[in-house]
Every structure is written in C-alpha cells, then in structure tokens.
C-alpha cells in the first residue's frame, strides 16, 4: 500500500470503483493523497498491477467484521461416540438408538462402537449385525460415512447427518 508499491505503472481504480486507467506510480499516489485516501495494491500479480484508491483502515475494519460474522455463523461438527455391547438387551439398544438419532438431528457425527470383552471377539458377526441394524434404522436421516470395521477389540462405524455429508 502507498509507498510500498514497487511497480513503475499501475492500472488505477478510483474510490467509487470507476476505471481511471494505467498511470505511473507517482501520479496514482498523488491522486490518492489529493483524495485523502490510500493507494492499495489489490492485484499484485496482474500485468500491470491493479491498485485501488480507498480508505485502508475502513476496508480492514469491514473485512474483520465480515470474518467475525462468518465465524459466528459456522457450525462446529462434533463426533459423538455411542458404545454398544455384543450381548446388549433390547431396551438398552433402544435408549442408545434414541441418543444416536438425537445427535444426528443436532448435526453431529456419530461414532457407533461395539466393544467386545473376553471371548466375545470370536463372535464379531454379532457386532456386525448390531451396527447393520442401527444403520438401517437411521438410514433416512444419515449416511454411513465409514462402514463397520473391526479395529482391535472394537467394531466401529461412523454416521454423518444427511444435510452435512459430502
């Protein structure tokens, strides 16, 4: 900006957005000083570089306001984990199922895990059935982001809400 611009000539854009044309850097700086504004290089890679006459302090303030508003409006997606056991009873399954639905409706991803203890690991098909049943029951509100897969003593599946899944 201003004296830090190192080009000989620049394409100049006025304060109200009109094209002034290609000017030498001295002429452009003089026009900016006469308007009591700054000369800002907005496209340094162009041939010739594009400079604009503007109030740089006001411009930076408005940019920061826009960034703050964008940060305020963005939703942080959490990963919630729900654990199942291989020999889970029906009522316990229903409670955990309702939690999964609640998390998905809030826009969070869900990591559904079946934990195997002791010799239960030899019956991994039971865990597969539990996770398949869960994925079928919540199919209308979510996508399976990662299919059930055995990792150590746990079988893990990740579900993502339909409105935020890629």
Question: Which helices and strands appear, and what pairs or packs with what?
Answer:
Blueprint: E1 9-13, E2 19-24, H1 25-34, E3 38-43, E4 50-54, H2 56-73, E5 79-85, H3 90-105, E6 109-115, H4 124-137, E7 142-151, E8 154-161
Keywords: Cytoplasm, Initiation factor, Protein biosynthesis
Main location: cytoplasm
GO molecular function, one term: ribosome binding
Give an overview of the whole structure.
By secondary structure, the chain is α/β, with parallel strands linked by helices. The chain has 2 domains: 2-73, Ubiquitin-like (UB roll), CATH 3.10.20; 79-161, Translation Initiation Factor IF3, CATH 3.30.110. The chain contains 4 helices and 8 strands. The chain has helices spanning 25-34, 56-73, 90-105, 124-137, and strands at residues 9-13, 19-24, 38-43, 50-54, 79-85, 109-115, 142-151, 154-161. Strands 2-1-4-3 form a 4-stranded mixed sheet. Strands 5-6-8-7 form a 4-stranded mixed sheet, covered by helices on one side. Strand 5 (79-85), helix 3 and strand 6 (109-115) form a beta-alpha-beta unit. The radius of gyration is 29 Å and the shape is rod-shaped.
